[in-house]
Amino acid sequence: MPGSPIERHGAARGALVQAAFVLALAFLVYEGAAMALAHMRAHHIPFDFGFWDERAGFDIDQHLIPYSFTSTYGRAFFVGLTNTLVVAAIGIVFASLIGFAIGAARLSPNLIVAKCAGAYVEALRNVPLLLQILFWYNAVLKALPVPRASLAFPGHVFLNNRGLFVPAPTLSPLGISLPVFHGFNFAGGARLSPEFVALTLSLILYTAAFIAEIVRAGIAGVPKGQGEAAAALGLNARQTRKYVVVPQALRLIVPPLTSQYLNLFKNSSLAVFIGYPDLVQVFAGTVLNQTGAAVPVIAVTMAVYLFVSLIVATAMNLYNRRIVGVAH
Amino acid sequence: MPAAYVRATPAPVLPPPVAAGPSWTRLLRNLFGAPQSLLLTVLALIVWLVPGLLRYFVFDAVWHGGATACRAANGACWTFIGEKLPYFIYGSYPPDQRWRVNLVFAIGAGLIVWLLAPRAPARRLGTWLAFLVYPALAFVLLYGWPALGLKRVSSDLWGGMLVTLIVATFGIVVSLPLGILLALGRRSQLPAVRLASAAFIEFMRGVPMIAVLFMADTMLPLFLPEGFEPDRLVRPLVGVALFASAYMAEVVRGGLQALPKGQSEAGKALGLRYWGIERLIVLPQVLRLTIPAIAGTFIGLFKDTTLVATVGIFDFLRTVDSARLDPNWSGPTITTTAYIFAALVYFVCCFGMSRYALGLERRLAARYGRATG
To answer: Which of B17, B120, B151, B245 is the most exposed, having the fewest neighbouring CB atoms within 10 Å of its CB?
Structure first.
């Protein structure tokens, strides 16, 4: 950096500043760690992973991998992790679909369509996500009728205050199991809990508003001359979109889209507020409270988020490199 | 022999472009120019939604009358909001001391008008007052100082909009300078400074804010000397400020990268040192360039203040969420009314901030003759 101490006063001063900085940082870290260790010893707070193989003794409503209250804390960690990843994966797919559709609608030549899409974007992104989650969960899903009076949708989908009941594939015998009302509740099919529906739905709708804005800016960022040149070459509207506008717009869209995907993944931790058993709710919540092992639990939780963020960012960077390469 | 390819008669005159015609034809074309099915869908949605919303929030809503009227109503219960409004604003702050909160609000509003109004006088003085004097004054007023005759009010009693504004203001006041320092650190020539800044920024941006708040709440007391228990409200404040600083740092770094290198080189040629160049030449331009992004970060921060509820702080949303469970007001529409009211409040704040930023951006672009963005 021009004008920095190194250039102006020689390497010696730079080294001195750095040495002082490193020493101060090391002192702070050492003092903090020593203080924390003393605290934890005095209050018998565990700071190792001894709890990992102990019996958890609490139940988790939703689990994709086998789990019961006799399972270990380590098992509970993986249940929370898979629940987080499922929400993030479904959320990313649908938020992209809706976001691209609304972003394109904002550029529609039709005023009504464009204004409605604009209203959607402004309304959704100016209201906190937590409020939207609470609204869907407490005001909409909790207020639904009991299973006997379920709302029925085409394709054997039923919605009631116990959750969303959908057909599910079965392995043995190979086929599809349909939800059927039986006695007081539904049997067969798959039940998506209200917590899961509220969290995923709000994440999708909220992130879609941001993606729509990115898509709009991306398409608007392609110079007008590009489309006009394509028309002059005799390409029709569909070909112009497919071969000229979208490839160039993607280059502008992908980098900010990556951070929206990461935001959605991190925002799935708001599950805590409605009790969906995600990583933070199960591990940094229940496990932390039962074991009191604050430092290891928080460290593992943070490490998971950092690790997944790193993977998503790397994958999107590779994709970005490919689309930039194709266009050249 | 005349050339066969030369036109003998003039070509027919083309009609003028439609856009140049009267504006109502343009409007008609804009209204009915899309695929019919899409248009019909959107129109049907509007026709179906708007009357229903109007009925629920205006015509069938309860504007006068108490809880019994609300229990029977098919619409929003606005009297509930009126009754709970003091709780939404002050939390459990003692009613006879609420003038102190009002005073803090009033001074804050005055400072905001002073700083944000175009062509305001002595803005430098205002900045110092807002960033240094006001926080201290607000703390003394809110927390109390028995020697001055101000009764102590524990932060356990603070709540509602008061806490939301405290968290947001603290986050903004701390994250802007800290974010600038971190951004400069990340571009520093000193590897140790660069590494430490980058590690901090990437760590904070890689984890969810809830995890940061959990960490601040459970681990901050561990790292401080025995008997020095940080206040219940201070812990999330620290978490929010550090979290916001990392995002601010990336915004400022984007601006630093966009500024041509010649600017700081020219500063060096004038004989300025590092801090002189940054303070007098680089940062004023960078901050002007990044105003839209900084405003975006502030809006995000304002929305994120709702997450302090994880560690048991009663911010605005939390007071609304707990008031709706009041058994005296149990009605079928209370929950929806409460959430819609909260959504309107957040929308007005966030949308207002984004509109102000847009206007400021245009004004600066006009003054400095620079394209926006």
So the answer is: B17
